[in-house]
Amino acid sequence: KQVLKPLFARVVLQRYDLLSKSKLLVPDQFKKRNAPSRGVVIAKGPTASDEVVVGKTYIFGGHAGTWVNEQGIGSPDESTAQFFLCADEDLLCLVE
Q1: What's the confidence (pLDDT) of residue 75?
Q2: At residue 80, what are phi and psi to the nearest 5 degrees?
Q3: DSSP string covering the chain
Q4: Count of CB atoms within 10 A of residue 82's CB?
Q5: Residue 82: closest CA among 28, 33, 24, 35
Q6: Contacts of residue 56, Cβ cutoff 8 Å, sequence gap at least 6
Q7: Considering the entire predicted model, what is its pTM?
Q8: How far from the centroid of its chain's Cα atoms is residue 21's Cα?
Q9: Which of 12, 26, 45, 70 is deepest in the core (most CB within 10 A)?
Q10: How far apart (Å, rounded) are the C-alpha atoms in residues 32 and 50?
Q11: N-terminal to C-terminal alpha carbon distance within the chain
Q12: Pick from 55, 30, 45: which is nearest to 86 by CA?
């Protein structure tokens, strides 16, 4: 099994699964665009800010980074990508 190890001031977030709260059918293209930009930091690079804490949940800029799967391969289909790689400065806020 490969491990995603971020470099420099990058972080790896594990995606929150989308939860359905209604029976409204939403086309896939809109699910992708409106997916919550929220995840748990599972790793951070050596120069990432000390304010970024592994294990904490953050909101991040949706177009700030790259969605990848477990092998670190980028995926145009976010539904198969469980990890988000971005710079630490692209984290917008901590969710407490």
Answers
A1: 66
A2: -100, -5
A3: -------TTEEEEEEPPP---S-----HHHHHHTS--EEEEEEE-TTS-TT--TT-EEEE-TTSSEEE-TTS-B-S-GGG--EEEEEGGGEEEEE-
A4: 17
A5: 35
A6: 40, 41, 94, 95
A7: 0.75
A8: 21
A9: 12
A10: 31
A11: 31
A12: 45
pLDDT (tens digit per residue) in 52-69: 999 999 999 877 888 888
Burial class (CB in 10 A: 0-12, 13-18, 19+), 17: exposed
Q: In this predicted model, what pLDDT tens digit does every residue of 3-19 receive, in sequence order?
A: 788 999 999 998 776 44
**12: closest CA among 42, 34, 37?**
42
57 by Cβ neighbours in 10 Å (0-12 / 13-18 / 19+) ranks as: middle
| Per-residue pLDDT, 16 | 73
Q: How far apart are CA 51 and CA 68, in angstroms?
A: 24
Tokens of 33: 């665009």
